[in-house]
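Annex B. Sample input.
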Amino acid sequence: MNPVEMSFWGRIEINKATSFLLYTKGDMVKTILHSIKYKGNKPLAIEMGRIFGLHLKENNIFNSIDVIIPVPLHPKKLNKRGYNQSELIAEGISSILDISVVREGLYKNTNTSTQTRKNRYERWINSENMYTVCNASTFENKNILLVDDVLTTGATLEACCIAFKNLKVESLNIATLAYAPS
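Annex B, continued. Sample output.
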């Protein structure tokens, strides 16, 4: 049983889901994620994406993907942080799998507060109607890989998948650098 895929059972239809690292409090994964997300360590994000990409390639996990879409930040948060960590991770994965990254495949409609300290229900409420697919026809009959930095409750990725719900995509797949079991 894949606990990452299981976290989406009964919520959204996905083809495959995986995470590279297991996130537990006080471990090295937390240090890596905080360095990427809050300390501006962009090269580390890209390198971790490359290492993740090598793992995906060696294990043939996503060998039918057509396009990679990073989970977007709201423009205000992107402007404040200066970069999207999920996009950098996606770039690293892309460089190994040789699959294009569509940086503007999704748009984040609302500027929500950080979900770090929210419970599952609060995250779900916070993520309703949060994303819009841009240029929807571009994704028709495509196998899409959504990339994010960390999976906790899955509310953000669920909201991203919901944005694709009425489109004719071949499949939705999820890859996160880390998984934090609740």
